[in-house]
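Task 17 of the worksheet. Students: predict the tertiary structure of the chain below and write it out as structure tokens. Keep your answer in the requested format; marks are given for formatting as well as content.
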Amino acid sequence: MRLAVKVATAVLIVDQVSKYTVVHGLGLDRKLAMEVLPPWINFRMAWNQGVNFGLFSGQSDWTRWALILLALGISVWVWLWVRREPHSALVQVAAGLLIGGALGNVVDRLLYGAVADFLNLSVPGIENPYSFNVADIAIFAGAAGLVLFTGRDAAPPTKTRKR
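Model answer:
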């Protein structure tokens, strides 16, 4: 369980430090776009009031608080589930990634009213219009890890023979 806590804490810190450094330190909130390693890596400022790709975004405070409560609820549920019984290190890391990422985006919603997205990855000839952040990467990797690694430790069911 300590591994999940350490991973969640590390993700939360890296996410918040990266956002503060890029958005405020480099002034992306004013410049709105910066080429880092074009076309592969760029910084593009996007204040996401919804979930992935701006889904469910709205101007209401109700949406903001609903998304905060949803993220906190999922984080608590994953925490309690991982804590309930022993899990492999991979499952604990995945849970920590998901929880840390969710909490990173909750902090943004509390501070700014929206999630600060700034990473933009593209390839030559194809411009990606979407931005994301470290928390989003952690959430995706954590959810994928939970799907892939949960249940691997379970013993296979034994066959019962009739006599």
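Marker's comment: Residues 87 and 153 are 7 Å apart (CA to CA). The two ends are 44 Å apart (CA to CA).
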